[in-house]
Amino acid sequence: MTLVLGIETSCDETAAAVVEDGRLIRSNVVFTQEELHRRFGGVVPELASREHVLGILPAVERALQTADARWEDVDAVAVSYGPGLAGSLVVGVNAAKAMALARGVPLVGINHLEGHVYANWLVKPDHWRPLTPGGERRTPAAPMFPLLCLIVSGGHSELVLMKHHGTYEHLGRTRDDAAGEAFDKVARILGLGYPGGPAVQRAVERLRDPKGNIPIPSHLELTRPWLRGTHDFSFSGLKTAMLRLVEGGGTSPVGNPSPLSRVVAAPGSPATTDPSRETCQLAAAFQEAAVDVLAGKTVQAAEQLRVKQILLAGGVAANKRLREVVLARSKAPVLIPDVDLCTDNAAMVAAAGYFRLQSGHVSGLDLDVKPNLRLA
Ligand code: KG4
Ligand code: ZN
């Protein structure tokens, strides 16, 4: 049995986790800084790093305790070293280095995006199969290669083909805003508060009828940015279209005069606790267009490449509508982590660390943070 301690501090979650054999979550501790950043309407890097400094050791201690593990049981330390905020990454990387050095165990630097992908390998304790008569614990089947992974987070939107562990062939990426960034900006435009993705989803869910449909008036239908002939995405046009609709007087991208006139919410303005039906419809118009493109392009690429499975990863994969549309349209089996494993956590880092270790990958103590690291 191999226990990997995972550490994640790339943005605004201070997280530590213990994962057994790359799959079984023994503990998964996440200290979120949501409240701290809420009044600024976004993450304030300086505040985030200070909070990581305060939280990292308690998070690790709690992760070990919950896992019922001692320091001697830890076989390796895996840590996100990029992409992310430099001042935030530095806290996790330095803590991980100190722990690996003190315990004499390997240090494994992990690309945060690779971590998101490996959330799909994780199994929660309540999903462990019972012990077989021979004493062997059975875990659910792992993802199967070749697979297509849609990684959609606050900073990235990428479509990658994975033929083996740790190899990523880039098919497409966003040409402007990341999917999560677009959700966050639209939430801000609509005065729905921070963090934006869940706020947009909540507003849209208010419209859902008993049959599960989300009615959107035809004048709010947004033109989809298909970028045909490529696997790339673009979301800034949708955001601008929303802005025009909200500001009123402009025209929607389908050419109809906007019937709505509204003041754009200032950054950090309090969340609308009870958004109007119109606001919910605007949120739905955006979400439906974004989800249509994300799901449509993913399913199309999966069919072209004849992959065995589709994986979703990253914070936006927590989106209820994206999950249901991809599941409904794909002929290939779709794997999606539980919602709490889509957003930033350290169990995904530990899982990725285990598979990196298996392929002989170990980092030196000179590991540095790479805020702009790409998935290679
Ligand atoms: O992966 P993540 O936790 O952090 C990054 O690596 O960026 O992703 C955060 C992003 C944010 O933009 C957030 O608004 C979005 O994921 N997000 C969602 C949902 N939950 C989180 N977007 C849409 N629907 C959600 N339910
Ligand atoms: Zn992330």
From TrEMBL:
Gene3D superfamilies: 3.30.420.40. Substrate binds at residues 151-155, 184, 197, 319. InterPro entries: ATPase_NBD, Gcp-like_dom, KAE1/TsaD, TsaD. Its cofactor is Fe(2+). Transmembrane segments: none annotated. It comes from the Bacteria. Its main location: cytoplasm. Keywords: Acyltransferase, Cytoplasm, Iron, Metal-binding, Transferase, tRNA processing. It is found in: Cytoplasm. GO terms for cellular component: cytoplasm. It catalyses: L-threonylcarbamoyladenylate + adenosine(37) in tRNA = N(6)-L-threonylcarbamoyladenosine(37) in tRNA + AMP + H(+). It is an enzyme of class 2 (transferase). Residues 25-350 form the Gcp-like domain. The keyword Metal-binding applies. Binds 1 Fe(2+) ion per subunit. Fe cation binds at residues 112, 116, 344. Belongs to the KAE1 / TsaD family. Required for the formation of a threonylcarbamoyl group on adenosine at position 37 (t(6)A37) in tRNAs that read codons beginning with adenine. Is involved in the transfer of the threonylcarbamoyl moiety of threonylcarbamoyl-AMP (TC-AMP) to the N6 group of A37, together with TsaE and TsaB. TsaD likely plays a direct catalytic role in this reaction. This is tRNA N6-adenosine threonylcarbamoyltransferase. It comes from uncultured Chloroflexota bacterium. The lineage of its organism: Bacteria, Bacillati, Chloroflexota, environmental samples.
